[in-house]
UniProtKB/TrEMBL annotation:
Region described as Disordered: spans on this chain: 242-265
Annotated PANTHER family: ABC TRANSPORTER G FAMILY MEMBER 20 ISOFORM X1, ATP-BINDING CASSETTE, SUB-FAMILY H, MEMBER 1
Single GO MF descriptor: ATP binding
Any one Pfam family match given in the protein's UniProt record, by short name: ABC_tran
Keywords per UniProt: ATP-binding, Nucleotide-binding
Record-given protein name: ABC-2 type transport system ATP-binding protein
Residue ranges the record marks as coiled coil: none
Family annotation (InterPro entries): AAA+_ATPase (IPR003593), ABC_transporter-like_ATP-bd (IPR003439), P-loop_NTPase (IPR027417)
SUPFAM superfamilies: P-loop containing nucleoside triphosphate hydrolases (SSF52540)
Low complexity bias spans: 244-265
Segments forming domain ABC transporter: 10-238
Amino acid sequence: MMNKHPEPAVEAAGLRVVRGGRTVLDDLAFAIPRGRITGLLGPSGCGKSTLMRALAGSQAHVTGTLTVLGRPAGHRDLRPRVGYVTQAPSVYADLTARQNLDYYAAVLGIHRRDRPAQVDRALHDVDLASHADALAGAMSGGQRGRVSLAVALLGEPELLVLDEPTVGLDPVLRRDLWRLFHRLADERGATVLVSSHVMDEAERCHRLLLLRDGRLLADDTPDALRRSTSSDTVEEAFLHLVDQADAADPRTPADTAAPTEATPR
Ligand SMILES: Nc1ncnc2c1ncn2[C@@H]1O[C@H](COP(=O)(O)OP(=O)(O)OP(=O)(O)O)[C@@H](O)[C@H]1O
């Protein structure tokens, strides 16, 4: 695909985040290319959500450099250009899916004339067109999550930051969402950053950022990661890199933010 923007969608250097007095992201440096799907992977507690919050501009105590679409993360100009979906669906239970989307479209400043088409398209994208008039409060958790995702798609943002969007979804919905992510990247040129701790989802990404204990273990393509570690799967590659990092920097569990499990759940 021709990339109209040679500069990355996101660039981080010396990125550090402190939460509750503890360093939870430490000296991260990476770039996220435009128009591709980048997976942010790592065990529970490694700092994925914190990094996403920093990108969306909703995280306090961020130091270092974090540039998003050419602006400092959190810059007001980025609001319509970045779609962010948190782990907890943020929709109004007493509104229907369509009413939620209409409301957020207005908040985003989408012109009244353009709203119906935008809302229809977003509902269609997440396969909720047939539930447009159902109350969000009467929907399943997975459906509410998809309404949240539809909200993030309004206005066709250039960057989508999706925090574990497939968690709790059945295999068919998970597959459909991954197809949507690929469509957004391939056909609309969107940059998609998606977090997961399910390693099989890593294989569906163009690039991967592997995080552990707030540090970056790898920033590469799934193929290159498998090759460089002589592994058959990304999960095996991840475990190889964890062992390598432990051998080079043996920190005690008490010093780290990570759970004691070595295997991502
Ligand atoms: N409000 C908070 N105050 C202090 N520390 C926090 C807070 N929220 C999270 N943390 C800590 O920050 C670290 C990173 O948490 P984060 O939620 O970013 O991890 P994660 O990789 O997204 O985990 P999960 O996959 O379980 O969602 C963890 O050690 C966590 O305990």
